[in-house]
Specification:
The protein is of the alpha+beta class and 464 residues long. The chain has helices spanning 3-11, 22-35, 52-55, 58-71, 85-102, 130-147, 164-176, 190-193, 196-204, 210-220, 244-261, 280-298, 334-347, 356-374, 380-402, 405-414, 419-426, 432-435, 439-444, 447-452, and strands spanning 110-116, 122-127, 181-186, 224-226, 229-231, 265-269, 272-277, 308-310, 320-322, 330-332. Helix 2 (22-35) crosses helix 6, helix 4 crosses helix 6 (130-147) and helix 11 (244-261) packs across helix 12.
Length: 464
């Protein structure tokens, strides 16, 4: 069955069969989606006052279904996968839609999972059911179109047309302008500590439809299934649902407006907020004032152990740091380099049973993604050094896989190494890591040979 036909079956009655006023709502929805392409502005903008009918617009629902299926993701507590969703909607959408229209739909509890954090420890996620993700996505699309143009121009996280690279570049301009001290704010367990009443008060200022307000609160308070038991969620916005990032931006827009009112230069990406000032004394004063504001206005706590007032070169922001001097350059934060090496070590373990070609293939997938983000740095010598280190790891893998001295001698000779050098290297008592830096292995595995296996360089664009 064609996708277009399946969508008709999936989403139930068409707009033509609804009340006449729905045509105006559909027009509003299309205008809302179009506004996603507009650049954000600093001041408030009158919204569309979105209602449930706008959420349930046919085109909005079709877009939501497409995005949920494209994003894939794990199943929720009911075990339903994203590929099962269209058939489920085909059978049950009239009932679900009726519940949404009359305000009786109840979201199911989220499934608790924990994923490792890059900085250590674990990050708790709440995975909604696929059906709830679909409904959250539909809500998010309309609300984001309405709210995003009103958010601060210095907010970059989870917003259409904005990126972490833009946030880092903005921070760099502040430093270059003489604001050489950063107030690096870390909000303690922000997503777990959001106050529901404060958040819903902010939502209610923008949404008049009580059914939609009830639905959003229902997503916040649906509960968490953990260890076979459902526990209440009295605070926080569970990470894992499409709506959570938008709600977090709404909450922290209050902080943005306060910082703007005080005349500060700052950059925020989700709950990472850096404020740039001219002196250490000014930074300490700002830290104290903002800490007091967050506790009083939003009931949020600053993690003093992870926050600091310091030179930007001593802190990291979104995986980057900055060199000192009058013209600061973007560099990769030391912690990000450590994580890179740990991942490459895991992918190039010498005890793996995979061939060198298979290891290179898996490694290159990671390198391509890493380069796409950290290639934004302005310290190419670091990238070249990491490239060199990665090639050395692969040469050590090859040396280990050859195992015996006779095999090593034969393989070196086959790859163009002279007889004497091959014999000397094959009989060496040194280990694989030391020999991976030897002239013989450099001849046996030059850069071109590793590239022929598919190795991607992080120091320059990959050529097809």
């Amino acid at each position: 069955m064609r996708q277009k036909d399946q969508s008709k079956l999936t989403l139930g009655p068409s707009a033509e069969g609804e009340a006449p006023s729905l045509a105006a709502q559909a027009t509003e929805a299309r205008a809302a989606r179009a506004s996603l392409e507009r650049p954000a502005v600093a001041g408030p903008v009158l919204g569309l006052d979105p209602g449930m009918e706008t959420i349930l617009d046919r085109e909005n629902l079709k877009t939501a279904l497409t995005r949920v299926r494209r994003n894939k993701g794990a199943a929720g507590i009911d075990g339903m996968g994203v590929d099962d969703l269209p058939a489920h909607l085909k059978r049950h959408w009239p009932t679900i839609r009726a519940q949404l229209i009359d305000g009786t739909y109840k979201p199911q509890p989220v499934r608790r999972v924990e994923i490792p954090k890059a900085s250590g420890g674990v990050r708790p996620l709440g995975i909604p059911t696929v059906l709830d993700r679909f409904i959250q996505q539909a809500v998010m699309q309309v609300l984001q179109a309405d709210w995003d143009p009103t958010f601060s121009e210095t907010s970059f996280g989870f917003r259409p047309g904005r990126s972490a690279h833009q946030a880092v570049a903005r921070a760099q301009t502040y430093i270059a302008s003489g604001y050489g001290v950063v107030v690096d704010l870390d909000l303690e367990k922000f997503f777990d500590r959001v106050n529901h009443d404060i958040l819903m008060g902010l939502v209610a200022k923008r949404v008049a439809d009580k059914r939609l307000l009830k639905l959003i609160r229902g997503f916040l308070t649906a509960g968490v299934l953990e260890g076979g038991l459902v526990g209440p969620t009295e605070e926080g916005t569970p990470q894992g649902g499409p709506l959570s990032p938008l709600l977090s931006n709404l909450m922290l827009d209050v902080l943005d407006r306060e910082l703007e009112k005080r005349g500060h230069r700052f950059v925020r990406y989700a709950d990472d907020c850096n404020i740039y000032v001219r002196s250490q004394q000014a930074g300490e004063r700002v830290m104290t004032g903002i800490e007091r504001f967050l506790a009083k206005r939003l009931k949020l706590k600053v993690n003093r152990a992870k926050s600091a007032v310091a030179k930007p070169s001593a802190r990291k922001f979104l995986g980057f740091s900055f060199t000192g001097g009058r013209e600061p350059r973007r560099r990769i934060a030391p912690q990000a380099i450590d994580r890179f090496k740990a991942k490459v070590r895991a992918l190039t373990r010498r005890t793996r049973g995979d061939s060198l070609g298979q290891i290179v293939k898996q490694l290159s997938v990671y390198l391509t993604g890493w380069r796409g983000y950290f290639g934004f740095c302005q310290t190419p010598s670091v990238l070249h050094a990491l490239d060199q280190w990665t090639r050395r790891r692969l040469r050590a893998v090859a040396w280990t896989q050859w195992k015996r001295g006779t095999t090593r001698f034969a393989e070196l000779r086959r790859r163009g190494v002279g007889r004497d050098l091959a014999a000397q290297t094959a009989g060496s008592p040194h280990g694989p890591w030391r020999l991976s830096n030897s002239p013989a292995l450099a001849i046996a595995f030059p850069i071109a040979a590793l590239q022929a296996l598919g190795l991607v360089s992080i120091a320059k664009p990959h050529s097809a």
